[in-house]
Amino acid sequence: MGLFGYIIQNPGRVLEKLYEHIIIFGISWAVAVLIGIVISIMVSRPGVKPRVTDTVVGITSAAQSVPSIAVIAVVFLFTGIGMVPAIIALFLYSLVPIIFNASSAFKTIDPALKEAARGMGMSSRQILWKVEIPLIIPQLFSGIRTAATINIGTTTIASAVGAGGLGELIFIGLRLINTSQIFAGAFPAALLAIFIDILLSRLERRITSEGVLMDIEKHSLAH
Amino acid sequence: MAIELIHAEKTYGSITAVKDLSLTIPDNQITILIGPSGCGKTTTMKMINGLIPKTGGDIMINGVSVDEWDPIQLRRNIGYIIQEIGLFPHYTIFDNIAIVPRLLRWEEKRIKQRVLDLLDLVNLDPGEFTYKFPSQLSGGQRQRVGVARGLASDPDIVLMDEPFGAIDPINREKIQDSFLEIQKEIQKTIVFVTHDIHEAIKLGDNLAILDEGSLVQFDTTYNVVNNPETPLVEDLLGADRAFKGLALLRVKDYMKNDFLSLAKSTASEEALKQMELRQSKFAFIVDGRNRKLQGYVTVKSLKHRSAGSLEQLCKPTEAIQPFATLLDAMTKLFSMGLTTLPVVDDRGILIGVIGMKTILKQIEQMAVLGIEGD
Ligand SMILES: Nc1ncnc2c1ncn2[C@@H]1O[C@H](COP(=O)(O)OP(=O)(O)O)[C@@H](O)[C@H]1O
Ligand SMILES: [Mg+2]
């Protein structure tokens, strides 16, 4: 029996676990993207003290090195087992790179741009949508993509708290020392991660202004 | 008047950035705000377009207090150009210039025409630059785009805060020259901040000198240069140093021959006609036979007493010789209170004129080249 044996013999079960995986990842990640962006916008408004923004960037920067399993374990302690605790834990964990990247990107926007925008009579909302967001796209996407990749990987661990997903196949496979079953969990998870990342990179390229790319290139050449 | 500051004031806690500033900015001219760093130039500018709320006094824009203007509308009606330019890196040159017209919801067709006209105005080939991004332009080109963007909605008022400060000296000269040409065409009411006295003298119709938030002197550039009212203004002008440099230059190398001279026998009606034809406010009177300088007449004096010969109206004048220095010429110009001095050779024959403008230009250039030395 080859590596693909388990997949060939149990396509329905693999698909079911893949589906669960996508649900856990999809919900926790999408909500994290949304809320992460909102939080980043809120802490980077002109009225907010720089100290607050710095604190948020600092905390998220430090939080990135917390192992995912620890987050899952802590959430599991408070909420018990199942899919919902897993989604909550993964949401929290995905939030970190998104907020870190987006809020530090907001912080590094050249103040002269905002100054010029205000001086030309753009409202705060127009400055956010027409100047700030387009400029942070590359860094924002770097956060979103990191979150997606980590999230898909960590979702396999979430199976340990009874969330389901492809991790289940891996854990059972490990216990039975069944390589093909381990593979049946690991391979689709890896494919999913690669697929999502390609999709996001396409989307990123599509919505990033050519001028922003040139600007980044120019600055990286200068350093 | 488009801009009027009435006892305007800005305090930050105990710091007074701008103190009791009253200033009526002449329309359709370039008024320079100049003074040492931190004297309140930028603060003054930003109070005009409401980027910084004033804490006292009033500022009237087209007769309406800035307090009554909707700040967003006010800013869309005032051009704003800063040293850092602040071009949007994610916008093409076209889109950058189109920002304010789009905020004002102009039709795309009108915007397109306007952007192309503006690129033309600032000497950037529309064919080459329209769809480039800011990062593909040189500093000087970017600043030209910045100027175009500031003028995009054809505002009556344009505020420029050290717009050419970050450009290298050679390109700065060029962009200043083009800017003067542009202003000749567009005749905007421009408030221009600089800390560079040479730029101020070159570009300004009027100079407002600020120190520690207060107005020290406000007058035409010519009057400020001729009559600095305080030691600070004198220092700022660096008069002593620049004047020393003038002593190195000979009148003969800078004199012009675009003067009007009339024989003393000319009838006064004929003289008036010629002066009006040449748009000259005065004419030099020479001896018809040997071209020796006799003096000068003004249009005013001729109109006053239309009858009579030129000889009777002729006023004596100082003259200078070709090998005298520009410093000598300047001293004589000051003592005469005139703008132009006749140049005569050693036989007293009128051979040219030397003007205040020429001398000021030299002062400016020497400072740029550093000839005045120390
Ligand atoms: N936000 C601020 N808080 C306190 N002081 C300020 C602030 N902005 C400017 N100032 C002070 O106001 C004075 C004038 O500043 P500014 O108008 O920027 O000077 P400049 O003539 O160099 O453009 C300076 O002394 C500066 O330190
Ligand atoms: Mg300043």
Brief synopsis:
The complex is a heterodimer of chains A (223) and B (374). With 223 residues, chain A is mainly α.
SS-derived structural category of chain B: alpha/beta
Radius of gyration of chain B: 24 Å
The most extensive contact between chains is: A-B, 24 and 28 residues
Large-scale geometry of chain A: elongated
Give helix % range of chain A. Answer: over 70%
Count of individual helical segments of chain B:
17
What composes the largest sheet of chain B? 6 strands, mixed
Tell me what you see in this structure:
The complex is a heterodimer of chains A (223) and B (374). Chain A is mainly alpha-helical and 223 residues long. Chain A has a single domain (13-222), classed as MetI-like (MetI-like fold, Orthogonal Bundle). Chain A is built from 10 helices and no strands. In chain A, helix 2 (11-43) packs parallel to helix 5 and helix 7 packs antiparallel against helix 9. Chain A is elongated. The model of chain A has no long low-confidence stretch (mean pLDDT 92). With 374 residues, chain B is α/β, with parallel strands linked by helices. Chain B folds into 2 domains: 3-247, 3-Layer(aba) Sandwich (Rossmann fold); 252-364, CBS-domain. Chain B has 17 helices and 15 strands. Chain B has helices at 41-48, 71-76, 93-97, 99-103, 108-121, 126-129, 139-151, 169-186, 197-203, 221-226, 231-237, 239-246, 268-277, 299-304, 310-313, 326-336, 356-369; strands spanning 3-12, 15-25, 30-34, 56-61, 64-65, 78-82, 157-161, 189-194, 206-211, 214-220, 261-263, 282-286, 293-298, 340-344, 350-355. In chain B, helix 13 links the parallel strand 11 and strand 12. In chain B, helix 9 (197-203) packs antiparallel against helix 17 (356-369). The model of chain B is unreliable at 370-374 (pLDDT under 50). The chains are: A mainly alpha (223), B alpha/beta (374). Chain A binds chain B through residues 110, 112-113, 115-123, 126, 130-131, 134-135, 209-212, 214-215, 218, and chain B through 49, 51, 72-77, 80, 82, 84-92, 99-100, 103, 133-136, 149, 159. The structure holds adenosine-5'-diphosphate (ADP) and magnesium ion. Adenosine-5'-diphosphate binds next to strand 2 and helix 1 of chain B.
